Amino acid sequence: MTVTAAPIAESIRILPRAVFVPEHSETAAQRFAFGYEIVIENGSDLPITLTDRHWMIDHGNGCLKEVRGEGVVGEQPRILPGERFSYRSGAVIESAAGRMWGDYGFVSNEGDAFRVTIPTFDLFAPAAFRSIQ
């Protein structure tokens, strides 16, 4: 029995969280580093495998970059029903405020491929931040 991908996709939750990383940032060079953690929760009744990622990174200064690739952090994790997978990564942007969003590609054990949206999240350096030179 093959289950359609739409109900599976609706059962997957993507929870992003970003933090500013001042020790890897330098305002004079327009370099603002952020770390982010993504939690992926499988609320479906089927095991799923994350196959690829697609990111849009808004640098907050008119520059918009697109990133595509296989898996995440070198993995294509299999997530069982009711389980979660989390990973940490980072991004460097050219202004003190930007944002990221995108989607992940998955395949179910039944062979159904589907995509799940990564909610938009802000990359925001505190106004008081300045590099110590």
What's the arrangement of secondary structure elements?
Layout: H1 5-10, E1 12-20, E2 32-42, E3 48-58, E4 64-70, E5 78-79, E6 84-93, E7 97-108, E8 113-124
- Could you give the distance between the termini? 63 Å
Helix content: under 10%
Task: Report the principal-axis shape.
Answer: elongated
Assigned CATH superfamily: ApaG domain
What percent strand? over 45%
Q: What is the radius of gyration?
A: 17 Å
> What is the CATH class designation?
Mainly Beta
What's the CATH topology name?
Immunoglobulin-like
Give the mean pLDDT: 92
Domain unit count: 1
Reported for the largest beta sheet, the result is: 5 strands, antiparallel
Subunit organisation of the chains: single chain
Care to describe what's here?
The protein has 1 helix and 8 strands; from the N terminus they run αββββββββ. With 133 residues, the protein is mainly beta. It has one domain: Immunoglobulin-like (Sandwich). The strands form 2 sheets. Strands 3, 4, 5, 7 and 8 form a 5-stranded antiparallel β-sheet that branches. A 3-stranded antiparallel β-sheet has the order 1-2-6. It starts with a helix and ends in a 9-residue tail after the last strand. The mean pLDDT is 92.
